[in-house]
Amino acid sequence: MRLRVLIRLKPGIMDVQGTAIQRALAGLGFGDVGDLRVGKVIEVDVPGDSVDAARRRVDEMCRKLLVNPILEDYAVEPVVG
Amino acid sequence: MRLRVLIRLKPGIMDVQGTAIQRALAGLGFGDVGDLRVGKVIEVDVPGDSVDAARRRVDEMCRKLLVNPILEDYAVEPVVG
Known about the structure:
Chain A is an alpha+beta fold. Helices cover 35% and strands 31% of the residues of chain A.
């Protein structure tokens, strides 16, 4: 069972990397793009066939290691295909 | 139209960060997790209502700035909800 964790800065937290990319895009002629945010994606293979059980394990990994809950939000989703 | 770009290291490229996370997880009792890869996610607002047109623009951004085609693969998908 392969799952994907999307980790993003919480809405109130300034995304310096995102702002830098947005400025660079403006310099390349993409000045009309709106809000841009950069985050991390972690894809992991968890043994077992149950999506729910795998999701619970990955959730525990997020709480214990992968995510900083002060600064970051996360979402866990199955990888399709 | 909000789109998400998932940027991952190509299969042959060593993912040092992923290996480090996998080891740390093993130390926390998650020794049974399989392959783990770390990548970037960029979410961006592109003006217009056409998914196809927005996807083409984001594709151009990837080729011109966001992605290093030597090391990285990417996928563009609409953000639902």
